[in-house]
Amino acid sequence: MRTFIGKQQIGNDLTDNSYFSDGYRFHDAFHLSYAAVLGWSPVMRSILKRKRKSNPLIDEVEDGGRARVIEEGISALVFTYAKDHGFLEGVSAIDYQLLKTIKNMTSHLEVSQCSLGDWEKAIMMGYEVWRLLEKYREGTVVVDLDARSITYQIEKSNEISMQIQPAYAG
After folding, report:
1. Are 96 and 78 in contact (CB under 8 A)?
2. How do beta strands 139-144 and 149-153 pair?
3. Residue-range domain boundaries for the chain
4. Are 105 and 74 within 8 A, CB to CB?
């Protein structure tokens, strides 16, 4: 899977990194939903080269390696949960204990101000887009940071592209 903004590829080519095809290659939808709904994604900040270098402490703590690994860990943790729950299709609520674990993992980061409900919304929206990417294997993911939304549009191009509106600064 390759991700583009316009004609420029961002990030690396992705595979499922698994012995079995499970669609994890489309997991950037989760990072994008965290950016859209929570205003938080150190992974996307890094990929888009929007780390906050002007403040060394924020760059280290909020945009640094530990924060990125935590976000990737959350994506993997939730993916395992989602796999056991039909990839959240038709699911109306996420397990409280899972949400609480995520909240605890991020308690020292700026995203700690977000509620369990915010996390649940970000996860549900991310999986809605993920399911469509997995089904069609192509399309455009549109992130609107002002509206705090992420949507999917089918596009016949054999690649995944992104539109981030307005320019991702957070």
Report:
1. no
2. antiparallel
3. 3-165
4. yes
